[in-house]
Amino acid sequence: MIQFYNKKGARIKKEAWRKLLARDEYRVFREYCNNDIMVSAEWRGEADSRTAPEDRKLFTLFVHNNVNGNWIKDVSLTNTFRSEEEMNVGFEDVLLQFTKSDLDDEMEFVEKGNILIKEPEVKEETIYEPEPNEVEEEISTAAPASSSSDLGLWS
Question: I want to staple 77 with a disulfide (CB 3.0 to 4.6 A). Which of 16, 63, 140, 145 is the partner?
């Protein structure tokens, strides 16, 4: 018998599950699309009630490929997971294999080419203008001038 669970694995009523499933901000963890592949890491929250809690696969990684303009589910890469952490590893593995995403020098995952993420707008560089009190402070903290034979004689 199918039962419904929240992200933490606590049993919930079907009506509550339906409401949570309809909310993208609750259901979707990560998404990626580059016009060739679309990957979505999501909470699904349903499992057979006879499954041991530690074996319930409440999270799903959906993978679709663009075939002649149509998104076709990739059944070989779509998978279910027991935890959000496992799902995130699966998400990054798919992106490392099938996109330009890679690992940086510290072996941290770097996502590249995701058209779903808007790049920050580049604004014109603002010229730094110090506050008036900063200028006064800089002047007052300057070292006093020392006399030198190159400065000439004061009379």
Answer: 63
- Specify the length of the chain in residues: 155
- The structure tokens listed for 96 are 């490392």
- Quote the CA–CA distance of 75 and 11 in Å, as a whole number: 28
The DSSP symbol for 87 reads H
According to DSSP, the residues that pair with 2 across neighbouring strands are 48
The per-residue pLDDT for range 9-24, each reduced to its tens digit, is 999 999 999 999 999 9
Q: How far is CA 32 from CA 27, 82, 104, in A?
A: 15, 21, 19
Q: Beta-carbon neighbour count of residue 82 at 10 Å?
A: 17
Residue 117: pLDDT band (50, 70, 90) is confident
Domain regions of the chain by residue span: 27-43+53-118
118/137 Cα distance (integer angstroms):
42
Q: What are the φ/ψ torsions at residue 16 (nearest 5 degrees)?
A: -65, -40
Cα Rg of the chain (Å, integer): 29
**Burial classification of residue 91, based on how many CB atoms lie within 10 Å of its CB (0-12 exposed, 13-18 middle, 19 or more buried):** buried
